[in-house]
Write a structure and sequence with these properties.
With about 100 residues, this protein is mainly α. It is about 40% helix and about 5% strand. The longest helix is centred in the C-terminal third of the chain and has 23 residues, at about 65-90. The radius of gyration is 29 Å and the shape is elongated.
Length: about 100
């Protein structure tokens, strides 16, 4: 029995784990270098295209009064909720 055990060789692989190369640029970093903010800065979140899109949303526009911002958001959500039913619903061919 001892010979049977000694004739079997272990085929374990050795995996070497190395730290990331510090010369490589890290793509994801804390916002403004401050890790306590709780927001990560990625190529997507820091791109001018995304910043321009977010600045154009009604909640972020400062030139519009808060009441009109709420009305615009409410109209958009109302259309998203009722629009498909009005266009594709079972009552679309009825004359009301």
């Amino acid at each position: 029995a001892n010979r049977a055990r000694s004739s079997r060789r272990s085929h374990a692989r050795v995996v070497v784990v190395r730290a990331a190369d510090e010369k490589k640029a890290q793509v994801i970093q804390p916002l403004n270098g401050d890790p306590f903010i709780g927001m990560l800065e990625t190529p997507v979140t820091s791109s001018p295209l995304v910043a321009g899109f977010l600045a154009g949303l009604p909640a972020n526009r400062r030139a519009v009064s808060p009441v009109l911002r709420g009305v615009e958001i409410g109209l958009a959500h109302g259309y998203l909720l009722l629009g498909p039913f009005l266009a594709l619903g079972p009552l679309r061919d009825t004359s009301a």
